[in-house]
What we know:
The structure holds two protein chains of two kinds.
Chain A: H1 2-14, H2 20-54, E1 59-64, H3 79-84, E2 99-110, E3 116-124, H4 128-131, E4 136-140, E5 150-153, H5 154-159, E6 168-171, E7 174-183, E8 192-195, H6 196-202, E9 210-214, H7 221-229, E10 236-240, H8 241-285, H9 287-295, H10 300-330, E11 334-337, E12 340-343, H11 348-375, H12 378-383
Parallel strand pairs in A: 3-8, 5-7
Antiparallel strand pairs in A: 1-9, 1-10, 2-3, 2-9, 4-7, 5-8, 6-7, 11-12
Helix pairs in contact in A: 1-10, 2-8, 2-10, 2-11, 8-11, 10-11
Chain B: H1 4-11, H2 15-48, E1 53-58, E2 64-65, H3 68-73, E3 78-90, E4 97-103, H4 107-110, H5 118-126, E5 130-134, H6 135-141, E6 148-152, E7 165-174, E8 185-188, H7 189-195, E9 203-204, E10 206-211, H8 217-227, E11 235-239, H9 240-243, H10 253-282, H11 284-292, H12 297-333, H13 347-374, H14 377-382
Parallel strand pairs in B: 4-8, 5-7
Antiparallel strand pairs in B: 1-10, 1-11, 2-9, 3-4, 3-10, 5-8, 6-7
Amino acid sequence: MLRQIFIVSAINFKSLGSRFWQSMVIVVGLAATVGVMLSMLSVSAGMRDAYVKAGDPGRAIVVSKGSDQEGTSVITRAMAPLIIDAPGIAKDKDGKALADRGIQMGIPVLRKDGSKGFTTMRGLADKGPGVRPELHIVQGRMFQPGKRELIVGVGANTLFQHMNVGDKVILPDGQWPIVGIYATGDLLEGQVLGDTETLAAALHRTAYNTVLVRLASPSSLEAFKKALTTNPALSVTVERHSDWYKRVGNQNTFTLALLGYIVGAVMAIGALFGCLNTMYAAVSTRGREIATLRALGYGAFPVALSVIIEAVLLSVTGALIGAAIAWVMNDGAQGVFGNTVFHLSVSPAQIKLGVSWAIVVALLGGLAPSIAAARRPIIDALRAT
Amino acid sequence: MKYLPLVWAAVMRKPVRAILTLLSVMLAFTLFGLTIGMNATFAKLKEEARDDRIFAGARFGGMLPVGMARQIESIHGVAMVAHSNNLFGYIKDPKNRVFLQMNDEKVPQVNPEWPITAEQWKMVRDDRRSVLVSQRQANRYHFKVGDTFTVITPPIQKKTDGSNNWEFKVAAITPDISYMTAGYMFGNYDYFDKGRMLVDQGKTGIFRVKVNDPGRNAEIAEEIDSKFANSATPLQSITEKAAFDVSNTGMDIAAVDREVALAGMFMVLFLTANGIAQAVRERIAEFATLKTIGFSDRGVIGLVFAEAAVPCLLGAAMGVGLAFVLTKLLPSLIPPGDGVPIPVMTPMVLVWATLCAAIVAFASSALPALRLKRMDIATALSGR
């Protein structure tokens, strides 16, 4: 049986040369489908990655109860010390809790293409660098606490005008020099950072937005959460930082990803009809060969299977070509959408997704023709011209 | 016209193939319709944006004192300044995220084109809990005129009494506004302002500026920003035209749309070119017969072109039609409040689709046509 399947498939492939252009319908169809879908998904996936990477399971974020965005959360100055004294927070070598009182706001930027947009400016308090060890300076230096200085992310530096070391950012109480450029590998790279207290004073902020803490260990979240939620002086929500960003990321990229899937689905159905067409034609042009094999004693199943195998191999080839094009064109490119700066991403998981779509298309597109091929009466097929 | 039956017979010679090709072409044009229709929406938004209006919001977030409106009005060339503040929250379940645009009494004059009657605006002014709910939002929450509902806001929009529950009443259900994709709810600014905590009272979210001379719109936007650059609350102004321009998102979505449409066309080109080449190959003797009985080269080529054009044009029409149906379903698929524009099937979309279909038909029948032109009738007839 296996041998039969192998032999029939081999015959099919040897005749592929004479049906080259026709087979290309499947290859091109799937290449276009997967190429377009993965290109579109590279945007939503890249954006989501930027969010997900920003969330560290070793950190917890504290926001005011019910807030699902940092911007709408309010942590008053009275609440902050209560949070910072709670158990479960990691301590630095001086025994101080690694907790960062953060503020955030939008600031206008001029993109390199001349359009106007906003990006996020965050305040990092004294323990900020300890809470975020992934943050490192790649050019210039860190801002000094208490001074009106800013550092910008590498993404902001590449995509926005006037975001180099030495440039000045205009804030309400004057011009703040940019003294350094930092990298984090995540969402923060498109943002601007300064000292929380200095920024709060300049912007007349009387409260913080969030407190971000480094947990003593990932498992100390429960203790920390319990201490805060049972404290009657606090009305806050505590969430593991990775869960927080996963949720925010999904929320902000859901529609974008949905559009990618809709476009991919429409194209895939189109490609499916193309695949059906090609395989029907392939079966009908090989009618006599198939009948000869059947007459020689080959079973119906190997014949049918060989048709499906051919469809799958052509589809997968197309999908891989499409994925390769999407990867070369998009992967790693720096993108900006709204306030979010990120790297477009075509990941192995997405390529796998593209290939599995191709296999589904091939199975659906090959099934009916393969049954037709197997069930055709041998005598008729042999007589047909 | 008299050749139509001939073309039809040729197309339907292999019905399965013809139908599969048609469906494939149709789907590619569905995509074409959606993407190019999306671009048509972007173009329409930008075109419909008024060139005598400016949005002025807080440059660094936070809220703005209402009194700034007077100062903006004093700028030469400014006709009127309205303002509004959004109330964010959810209805019953956090999944039902909503925002209500709480307007001051001048908003109706700055936005006279909104499909809201003077009487409806008056309802909101007279009963301060009243809101105007757009048809789309009313459908989503099954609102009827007279219904009351509660919006639960995050702590930053707490009420004076410490609660987060804001009560509203549906005063009227009004037609949707094209650029507010998710629909809208318009409420009374005073109700919001008097209801919230004392420290926040007298503040607002955004100023809606109307200017006298559209030619000076951009200039006045700059002027507003520079006037408040050194104040406690600097402004960031943007003209309505710029605000409604899709390039504002930072990504050239229109170009992405065109590329997607192009990929679909490429797929279709391959498909039809193959189909027609195969059809001609199979019926070469018949074409030779046609030539023998006196059909000119041009006539035969015309027939081949027509045979290719039928699925292309028909598929294009069906595809754009399907896209049109999908655009009617799209708003229910996309989460409300995301503000994704819905594609529109303008006549231009149909013109482009027809043009592309014709190009595909022409390109795919070119090689087979050449083959027919050069063929030797005797050889072809003998079937060798």
